[in-house]
Design goal:
Radius of gyration: 23 Å
Bound molecules: aspartic acid
Strand content: under 5%
Distance between the termini: 41 Å
Shape: globular
Helix content: over 70%
Order of helices and strands: HHHHHHHHHHHHHHHHHHH
């Protein structure tokens, strides 16, 4: 008997972790052998597999939304599905942030274990910085606090990683600028440019417009509708082919990540990682409860149906790259209607990120717990600051692109809202890739539960 695809994926995932750990142990990480092996693993996992998935995302979003919306009988029904979907996304994202904040405030990872040594290191570093400041400017840091803080901001940014550069590029913009640059402008992008650059907001907006225009025109637009309906099925076929290759790809992705990150990153940031993963576990239970009570689907059936999507999300760390697999699992294995899945999943992959929202709140509060009260971090965790973190974490998750590390970049919004200098963010970069696996798989699970819930209401409404 041939082993089932999902079993193979999970076995290969475990093999990848073991291979990665062994590789990290036996090979010198700066040596030629290690670098060459990682290059090959990344070639198979990232260049070939993620590359192939990314190749079909843009046409998939366009075709699936047009196909989905045009299969909804009336404008009124389309509006209802849209409102239900967005309501579900808003509610679950808010729950996710609340879970994360409650947990980080109860566990207080910033007062435990490795956090103590992070604080001590930073205190020593700041003492050095004050001496450097005095040597460079002739001023005393305490007496010339504003100058010192400005100097520190430019000094701390120097020579940081490429991720940090991306974070800094997002700093110093007003909320209005962010709204215009990150939401309105991408939505009104030229559709061909949006497709070429995988600008999901632009593709979704154009697809909705196209679908609504087709629906308004009726018969004359039928060839366009038929084309996108067929295109949608064709892309699902390509996804099916790609999935045959997924066990090997997942193994390579896991091996590369475990070898380069290693379990040692958990040591100093163990409590922090534990809080994020614990919060995500609680949120997953909440999602499954919603699936059972609101979506009326047995959680075991649900988990069985989406396990391939979950595993691909975990290994690729991209909800967008996983989208073709999610659509396939939800429609073929869970029997969710095309009209619901084709609308809820692409929109969900773009705006609904429960794991990311939870993580953003936990991360910023964790950093304030450790560094609050230092020379350059004048904030405390009062009620007002927590509320600001709550709101901005939701917004940052909506704004995060569905690609690896995106949550880290949009965290700048949360950090700056409570005046946490952004140069503190790199302190948690080391564990970001590992936590990204957990949050991305939760993001995808949240979208799938959304499809189940909306589909149930649609089915009941139709009977
Ligand atoms: N990687 C996540 C996703 O694709 C976004 C994030 O970085 O939180 O869903």
């Amino acid at each position: 008997m041939r082993p089932r695809l999902h079993s193979l994926i999970f076995v290969c995932m475990a093999l990848g972790v073991i291979a990665g750990l062994l590789l990290g142990l036996v090979e010198d990480k700066s040596g030629e052998g290690f670098t060459t092996t990682i290059r090959w693993l990344d070639f198979v996992g990232k260049t070939l597999f993620i590359g192939a998935l990314k190749m079909i995302i843009a046409p998939l979003i366009l075709a699936s939304i047009v196909a989905g919306v045009t299969s909804i009988p009336t404008f009124h029904d389309a509006g209802r599905i849209g409102i239900r979907t967005l309501a579900y996304y808003m509610i679950t994202t808010t729950i996710a942030v609340a879970v994360g904040l409650a947990l980080v405030l109860i566990i207080r990872p910033g007062d435990r274990g490795g956090a103590e040594s992070m604080r001590a290191q930073r205190t020593a570093q700041l003492a050095e910085r004050r001496v450097e400041f005095q040597a460079e400017t002739g001023l005393d840091a305490a007496a010339a606090a504003p100058q010192y803080l400005t100097w520190l901001a430019s000094r701390e940014g120097r020579g940081q990683s490429e991720q940090y550069e991306r974070v800094v590029a997002k700093r110093d913009r007003s909320t209005f600028d962010m709204f215009v640059d990150d939401i309105v402008a991408p939505m009104l992008d030229n559709p061909f440019h949006a497709l070429a650059t995988r600008n999901s907001l632009g593709i979704i907006f154009f697809a909705l417009l196209l679908a609504l225009a087709c629906a308004a025109m009726g018969a004359p637009a039928k060839p366009v509708v038929d084309f996108f309906q067929a295109m949608n099925l064709v892309i699902l076929k390509i996804t099916q082919w790609l999935m045959a290759f997924s066990p090997i790809a997942v193994m390579c992705l896991m091996a590369s990540l475990t070898a380069t990150q290693g379990p040692e990153v958990f040591e100093t940031l163990g409590w922090y990682c534990g809080t994020v993963v614990g919060g995500i576990a609680i949120h997953v239970v909440i999602l499954l409860t919603i699936c059972a009570l609101v979506g009326r689907m047995n959680p075991i059936t649900f988990l069985r149906g989406i396990r391939e999507a979950w595993a691909v999300a975990f290994a690729t760390r991209s909800s967008a790259a996983t989208l073709p697999v999610t659509v396939r699992c939800v429609t073929e294995k869970l029997g969710i209607s095309q009209k619901v899945a084709n609308f809820t999943l692409p929109v969900g992959a773009t705006v609904n990120m429960d794991g990311t929202a939870l993580y953003e709140g936990v991360a910023v509060i964790f950093l304030i717990q450790i560094y609050g009260g230092m020379d350059d971090v004048g904030i405390t965790l009062a009620g007002g600051a927590i509320l600001v973190i709550f709101i901005t974490a939701v917004l940052a998750s909506v704004g995060a692109a569905a690609v690896p590390d995106a949550g880290l970049v949009t965290m700048v919004l949360v950090a700056t809202a409570v005046h946490l200098p952004v140069y503190y963010l790199p302190f948690i970069f080391a564990v970001d890739a590992l936590l990204d696996m957990f949050r991305t798989s939760t993001n995808v699970m949240g979208d799938a539960v959304g499809a189940v819930v909306v589909d149930r209401f649609e089915r009941e409404g139709a009977t």
